[in-house]
């Protein structure tokens, strides 16, 4: 396809109203192991009071995109309940909504979603009802703050068929991502899945563009390409594996959008914040970072709030002040409904409604909602799944072999504990 003339800047508010966002939230997230046994990865709690999906949804609202569909599939009950309770505040009368689009086997072969592209293809009829001009496709399982209106403006001004959100990473780390090769004008020239030798960025050869799984399509072009791909029996029906590499070879205009141009950064922040929390080690690290004095992700920045739904609970409480039994938390995040009763919590994140009973020490640990940690337990470098009832005297983080035998221990030395694992100890 021939290059197009750059489109003059448009009324961005009008263009935002013509944009439909699709949040792909149907995946399990198997790299989080047992943490996603009962719910999809986008529904996994994060940061004490949030769920992962709150980040792309908040980005949409804060960016001025008020037509959003959440595509669900795997064990979606908790996710559906969360979106219904927390994200139903838009007004349908003025064509604003956050809708849930569950997988419905809508094609002739009556299959579940086979890939990211197939998830969108199976909802073409739903999309057509809203007559969008642009379609923003988002992963529902990344943690970041981004102004999508800046990306939309870039898409319009460049005249691209597709704009791909890209984050700059060191070339040595880019081997774990889908990597975008570009020319001197950030036009995409290649799309490689986990390459051994990632192409560098022309103006920064030691860094590479990793795809963020954010794609902005002109609507008519998206429909055309999804229909073409659906007729290809050899396709895996995936944007990163099939659609985008094909479009590069076909000569379509694919534009890389630098995340640094639209990320929301707090004062003093040196690098744009984007995290794929798809592994237990990455999930633990991103949560624990929130306990630092100056975290990489500033959730206290009111300029770009992260919205959520949570049950109304009382404030956190710390009780007992004896030398051997003092309720305290240092360098930690403690959420609503928590009670730290005569125990010490250090460098840890306690989600909503956690109880730490007397004579415990909890350090460098992420505790998900509704956990109860029994007396005289010592827990370090762990992730406790929702609802864990930790038995009195349990010790975790001091004997790697014992931890691996009883629970799941990662290569990074983080121990995951779920209630089903605890039940198996009996």
UniProtKB/TrEMBL annotation:
Cited Gene3D superfamilies: Hexapeptide repeat proteins, Spore Coat Polysaccharide Biosynthesis Protein SpsA, Chain A
InterPro entries cross-referenced by the UniProt entry: ADP-Glc_PPase, ADP_Glu_pyroP_CS, GlgC_bac, GlmU/GlgC-like_hexapep, NTP_transferase_dom, Nucleotide-diphossugar_trans, Trimer_LpxA-like_sf
Catalytically driven reaction(s): alpha-D-glucose 1-phosphate + ATP + H(+) = ADP-alpha-D-glucose + diphosphate
An annotated Gene Ontology molecular function: ATP binding
Top-level taxonomic group: Bacteria
Functional pathway: Glycan biosynthesis; glycogen biosynthesis
PROSITE patterns assigned to the protein according to its UniProt record, in alphabetical order: ADP_GLC_PYROPHOSPH_1, ADP_GLC_PYROPHOSPH_2
EC class name: transferase
Glucose-1-phosphate adenylyltransferase/Bifunctional protein GlmU-like C-terminal hexapeptide domain: residues covered: 314-417
Keyword Transferase: yes
Site (Could play a key role in the communication between the regulatory and the substrate sites) location in chain: 73, 112
Pfam families associated with the record: Hexapep_GlmU (PF24894), NTP_transferase (PF00483)
Alphabetic keyword roster: ATP-binding, Carbohydrate metabolism, Glycogen biosynthesis, Glycogen metabolism, Nucleotide-binding, Nucleotidyltransferase, Transferase
Listed EC numbers: 2.7.7.27
Residues the entry annotates as binding alpha-D-glucose 1-phosphate: 113, 178, 193-194, 211
Domain named Nucleotidyl transferase: residues: 21-291
Family recorded in the similarity comment: Belongs to the bacterial/plant glucose-1-phosphate adenylyltransferase family.
Function: Involved in the biosynthesis of ADP-glucose, a building block required for the elongation reactions to produce glycogen. Catalyzes the reaction between ATP and alpha-D-glucose 1-phosphate (G1P) to produce pyrophosphate and ADP-Glc.
Subunit: Homotetramer.
Protein name: Glucose-1-phosphate adenylyltransferase
Organism: Roseospirillum parvum
Source taxonomy: Bacteria, Pseudomonadati, Pseudomonadota, Alphaproteobacteria, Rhodospirillales
């Amino acid at each position: 396809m021939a290059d197009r003339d750059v489109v003059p800047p448009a009324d961005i508010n009008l263009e935002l109203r013509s944009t439909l966002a699709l949040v792909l939230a149907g995946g399990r997230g198997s790299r989080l192991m047992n943490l996603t046994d009962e719910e999809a990865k986008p529904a996994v709690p994060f940061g004490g009071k949030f769920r992962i999906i709150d980040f792309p949804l908040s980005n949409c609202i804060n960016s001025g995109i008020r037509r959003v569909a959440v595509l669900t599939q795997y064990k979606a009950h908790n996710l559906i309940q969360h979106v219904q309770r927390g994200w139903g505040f838009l007004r349908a009368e003025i064509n604003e909504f956050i809708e849930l689009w569950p997988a419905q086997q809508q094609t002739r072969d009556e299959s579940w979603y086979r890939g990211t592209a197939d998830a969108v293809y199976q909802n073409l009829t739903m999309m057509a009802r809203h007559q969008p001009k642009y379609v923003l496709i988002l992963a529902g399982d990344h943690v970041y703050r981004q102004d999508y209106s800046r990306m939309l403006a870039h898409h319009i001004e460049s005249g691209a068929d597709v704009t791909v959100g890209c984050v700059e990473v060191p070339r040595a780390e880019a081997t774990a991502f889908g990597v975008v090769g570009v020319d001197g004008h950030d036009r995409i020239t290649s799309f490689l899945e986990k390459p051994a030798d990632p192409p560098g960025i022309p103006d920064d050869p030691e860094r590479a563009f990793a795809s963020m799984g954010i794609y902005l399509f002109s609507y008519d072009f998206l429909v055309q390409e999804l229909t073409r791909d659906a007729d290809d029996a050899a396709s895996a029906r995936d944007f990163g594996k099939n659609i985008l590499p094909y479009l590069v070879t076909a000569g379509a205009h694919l534009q890389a959008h630098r995340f640094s141009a639209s990320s929301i950064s707090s004062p003093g922040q040196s690098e744009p914040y984007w995290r794929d929390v798809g592994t237990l080690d990455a999930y633990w690290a991103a949560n624990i970072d929130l306990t630092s004095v100056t975290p990489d992700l500033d959730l206290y920045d009111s300029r770009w709030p992260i919205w959520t739904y949570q049950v109304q609970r009382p404030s956190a409480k710390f009780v007992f002040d004896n030398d051997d039994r003092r309720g305290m938390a240092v360098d930690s995040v403690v959420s609503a409904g928590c009670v730290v009763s005569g125990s010490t919590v250090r460098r840890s994140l306690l989600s909503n409604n956690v109880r730490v009973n007397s004579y415990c020490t909890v350090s460098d640990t992420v505790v998900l909602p509704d956990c109860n940690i029994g007396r005289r337990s010592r827990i370090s470098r762990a992730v406790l799944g929702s609802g864990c009832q930790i038995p009195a005297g349990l010790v975790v983080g001091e004997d790697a072999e014992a931890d691996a035998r009883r629970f799941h221990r990662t290569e990074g030395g983080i121990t995951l504990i779920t209630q089903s694992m605890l039940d198996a100890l009996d």
